[in-house]
Amino acid sequence: MDNSQGLTREGDVNSGRLREQWLTGLNAESIKALQEDEAVFMRQSMSTPCLQSLVRADGCYIYDQDGKRYLDFHGNSLHQVGYRNPDVLSAVTEQLGTLPFIPRRYTADIAVRAAKALIEATTSKDFKVLFTPSGTAAVGLALKIARKVTGKHKVISLWEAFHGASLDCISVGGEYVFTKELGPLLPGCIKAIPYNAYRNLLHSSCPERVADFCLDYLEYIFQNEGDIGAVLLEPIRATDIHVPPRSYFQRLKQMCEHYQALLIFDEIPTALGRSGEFYVHQNFGVEPDLLVLGKGLGGGVVPQAAVLIKKCYDQCSDVSLGHYTHEKPAAGCAAICAAVGYIKEHQLLENCRHQSVFAKQAAAILSERYVCIGDVRICGLLISFELVKDRTTKEKDSVLAEKILYYCLEKGLSFKLAAGNCITWHPPLIVTEEQLSSAFQIFEEAIKDCAYERVG
Ligand SMILES: Cc1ncc(COP(=O)(O)O)c(C=O)c1O
Which terminus of the chain, N or C, has less C-beta within 10 A? Predict the structure, then answer.
């Protein structure tokens, strides 16, 4: 199936009848703003043409130019500390007023403090850091480090994965919508079957059994392909939130050690507390060799990403790996220090865990009431509801998911659709019980309105 215009893992598409209907509800000013956007920006699936034009963002909310407010549980997964976080804004402003840029060959206290803040939050504290301007660049950098350190260029990643949209990143990505008609990709990129796909193929509800099947296949690749230098994956896939068991990660780590491949975790959308732990892998007791971070690192203000590298792999002094203009980015580093500090000082991990309990309870009630909810997966404030036509066959209900999306947008709740039929929420970690409760209320109204015939 050519899914480049249809369902994608990564997000909802910007075409179709419901999108057209949404546009008819906008006023003339908004339509004009969208037309102006389309006149200057190239169209892309999942982007331009856009939904609406925004004028303001604050805390958990975004505001469109009609004055409408949306509780934003999408936020491109970068708003852990909320929009316009006061600490981030004042740290960045102060940095811009003193040392806005650090030219290459120099360092500055703010850069060292930012790197230390990220290292201090790891379990072993046995890492070094490189900053990059985007998550995509950070994944590319991690792949290069793995090649240089192991002397092996082959990498195993997972089908359905997304690690960025540059040529190296789409080579290790697993979705056709990102590679379609773009020609030859990097050699040596081998794809394995992800945990969620095996779970569906096996129709198994035993996580350990599914994990074993995934890893047996991975081992088969290691043995037959040979020369694998790295394994790259998101420990928890941000889009439709599948959470493999601890045993998956433990055996994966052992396998990488055995075959002398580096384990790279892409935690770009999920780190900084979203899973209930500061880093996602801390839920599983396994540390990667290379950890890729981004999105919320810039405090929802500055584009900022980083790679954390186990100290023993600091072996690349004879090549220039990153060479970015913003290699030690002053504003980004100020944002990192402020965001990490804010998470600690305001006990956002605790709030995340607390709200997660509330979300699990509310989701359990909804699942009992509505048979269209086939599965709910929640880890911290990574929340996904899978909508199905039939709970036994698990047949996807993507049409319903899209209807619910537009209903909720209408009512002021924004989130992402993933894999066609998954309603995925990434609330900021500052979210309150009241805000979550209002999201659940809107979601329930949407189910009633759009799927009344399937109410159990
Ligand atoms: C898992 C994952 N990896 C990498 C990226 C790329 O990050 P960036 O958009 O900052 O380049 C993203 C962005 O959505 C992502 O979700």
Answer: N
